[in-house]
Amino acid sequence: MTSIQIFDKFLPTQEEQIEIISSEEIMQMLPHKGSAIMLDEARIIESDNRIIATYHLSPFNPAFEGHFPQAPILKGVLHIEIAAQAAILLVKKMYPEITGLPYLSGIGSVRFKRKVFAGDTITIIVTLMHYHKDNPKSHPFEFSFTIAKKVGDMNKEVSSGSFEGVVDRS
User: What's the predicted TM-score (pTM) here?
Assistant: First the structure.
């Protein structure tokens, strides 16, 4: 099994085409640089408008600095940022004609069920729910996400929610 650990319900079928995105490609595709990049690898399942990515949270990751120093946990807002980065990859792969800079433009309902600690590896599943091509200026992309981590022998959901994105075409 690869380093991508996923829920059974998100497993691709044998008929689905999977495109692997390496860490080098991620660095080229995202507008972020350095430690702001929060994905290690990804797989696109275009037939389902879905991306499955992983991110290992090193104990030395600056995101943990000062945030519950006795037991560092990942800030909730970074769950959304990580999912948004995966969404950027998904949009860039599915719609290569879109060349503008992508932005997070709205956050829907988000739930946090478990803590993510330094040293955890998380799996990020983002699905493009809607793309409103006819209205590109007002939140044209709608996404749902689920983030999971290995707990014992099982993958357990740590957070889930929805968000919107827009592409700056100026």
Answer: 0.88
